[in-house]
Each structure stands twice: as C-alpha cells, then as structure tokens.
Amino acid sequence: MTDTPPADRAAGSPPDGRTLEPWEVFRQEKEGDPMRHGGSVMAPDAELAVHYARELYARRQESVRLWIVRRADIHDLDDVDLLQPPLDRSFKKPGGYVMRDKLAAARAKSGQAKPKARPG
Amino acid sequence: MTDPLALDPVLSPAERSRLPFNEEHRSHDERYELFEQHVLAGGKVEAGDWMPDEYRTQVLRFVEMHANSELMGVLPEREWIMKAPTLRRKLALTAKVQDEVGHSQLLYRVAEDLGKPRDRMIEDLLAGRTKFHNVFHYPTHTWADIGVIAWLVDAAAIVAQQALRDSSYAPYARTMRKICWEESVHIMHGRDVVVTMVTGTSQQRDMIQEALDRWWGPLMQMHGPRSDRSKDRDIQWRIKAKTSEELRQEFLGIYVPRIWELGLTLPDPMLGLDPTTGDWRYTEPDWQELRTVVTNNGPKSQERLAFRQLNWDETRWVRDSILAAPRAAA
To answer: What residues of A are in contact with residue B109 (Cβ under 8 Å)?
Structure first.
C-alpha cells in the first residue's frame, strides 16, 4: 500500500518519441466574463492541446475564448499562513467599520435629523 | 504576495492544515483517519491530494466504468446515423454520438489523473477485464429504439449522473456538471422523436410501443440490484450519493407518468405507485440477465467489442504519429 499515484501517469510513448502531458483548459462563456477552469486534456504539444480543448470545451458554442495552459507551468499557492492568516484583517473590509452608534451620537451633538433614505 | 507578518508560520501545526491528511510527517493510519473524517464531513478531494489506495481504486473503477459506457454507448446509435429519417434528425444524432464520445474523453481524463493510462483502460475494456453498462449490449431494431434510448436510457443515466455532481471526488463532480448539461439536450431530442412517432401513423405508434417493451427490462436492471447503504463503499466514501434503488425510484417517479401520458403501456402488470409507502412497486428485474449481459455475454457484446477493437487497431497510426518525434524540416 503506497497511497501515491504511479510515477508514470502519462500514456506510453515510443522510446525517442514525445510524451503526453496534461494541459488545463480555462473558458470564457461570454465577453466580459472571467476565465473559469473547465477541465483538462492530454496532449504532446500546445497545438494538439488547443485542438482537443476546442473539441471538448467549445463544440457547442459555449465558449468565446479558451486559455490552454501546461499543467506543469501552473504555480500553486495554498499556504494558509499567506492566504488565511488568523490576524485581524477587518480594517481591509467595509464591514470592519461599524459607526451606527457614533453617527447617532454625532447627530445628537449637532441637533441634525437622520437623512431620509434615498428614493429608488 | 509577501506578507512580512506571515513569513514565519503563525498558525499552530494543527491550525495550519486545511487538509491535514496531506502532511507527510503523519503516519499512514493517522492520514487515513483524517482523510475519512474529511470526506464524511462533506469535504472534497482533488487529484493532487493524498488519498488512501482504497479510495483511489474505488473512484478509478467507478469513473472508468462510466467512461467505458459512454464510449460503447455510441455504437448502437451510430448504426442509425445513415438511416435517420430527416436531415435534422441525422444532425442531432451525429451531435449526440459526438457528445458521448466527448464524455468518454472527459471521464478517461479524470481516471488518468488517478494513475491509470488511457491505453490500458481501452485495452482492459477490449479484453473484457472491465465492464460497460448493460443497456449498450443490446441490438437496435428500428428507428423507434433510437428514440427510446435517447429519451429513457439517457434519462435513467442522468438521474444517476445528477447525484454524482456532489461526489466527494471534485474533478469527477465538476465533469458531471458539464456532462449533465449536455445530456439534457439528448433527452429532449429522444423525447421529441418518441412524441413525434406516437402522434404519427398507427404503425409509427406501434413501433414505439414495441421498442418500449423491448427496453423496459434492461432499463429496470440498469441501476443494479438493491444494496445495503451501510455496506456500500461508494456511498460511504461519498463517491456517489444515492443507492441503486433510490435512483430507480427517482427514475420511475419522473418518467412513468410521462410515458403513460402518451398513452403507452409498460410491460409490467405490477408497476404502480404504492399509496401507503409512496414507493413504486414493480416486478423484480431479471438480475441473472443483468449479470449475463454485463460480463459480455449479451446479444451484441462481442460484436460491439470487436468493432471497437477494429477501430482501435485502425487508428493506431494516428496515436503513433502524435507521439512520434518530430522530423527535422527538410
């Protein structure tokens, strides 16, 4: 029981030939949308990866743009110390500024009424 | 990106780990237990995460069988592309065949990341070491079979596939979301073929009824025999969410009324909704037939595998040239 994937994940290839490797496919559904991860394809080079991606992720006109990226070229960052540190970051968020009571105090001090809610 | 406050680990080792089973310093048993806790609590697993061999093998077997079924499932329909009654039907059927092959490509890709090369999966399928769904081992007799397959076989499949969108293995769950979206078009195409024929001549209507009679047995067997929830490893690992019987009940609940609505009958005198339990009653499906068929002893098993073998051999040069070293420009 090793619980690790076999080292040779790629399909077999002739001795001096090329190897298949995974390429990640990102797709944009319509202009202005963010690029979203769609899936991946196996290909020996970018040219074929583009063909496969087009065939599998844009066959039904469901994409206006594809990005095809070699999986090995992706830098993965999931360090919780960097991404989710347990420090107070509330000053970086709008919700970190609660001033209802202070506003009430300011109105009381200046004798002004609370402005009406804007129409609409 | 650099946060000066966070360069040294600020969290305790336990707090640092989003997925503690990925940590290599832990013992195997400890990782196994943490992995199981994560999955049971609804957690997701990505291809690069550590996972027990048992989980990897279960997911692989499940996805591989699914991929095989998509690949073999196009063969009965492929036979009708040249015989489709109109150009629009021909285009729709061709697109469906293309979609299903596409699904097999997506699913083999998910399986490859679990460690089994695609060539070996195809070879195992051709050698009968792995299986494909029972419904794809049967012949098609008329154009009506194509309507019934596209409507009801795909419907039975989509009931199962929708439940897989919540699979604990995230790459599979994401792929199922894409596949379900495409399958919903197939169901509409199939239902349209069926509805068109039942509103046509009496001969067309009879053809649909005959096809339905032929396919009902295999459809009732498709999700498999009842299983004990507590003993089903695929359920425990949350690889799948529903048991065979839950899927069959869901299928019957949605589609039997839609079949009856067309004035068609189903060849099972027992079939009906039990008002006290809310479950569908039905004659016990022929499980011996299911076992015979999925072990490649069905009426069309050998012929379809032989066709796949021929196809595999004839396209070898394409795979070889894709992998060949590029020749220097002349």
So the answer is: 22, 39-42
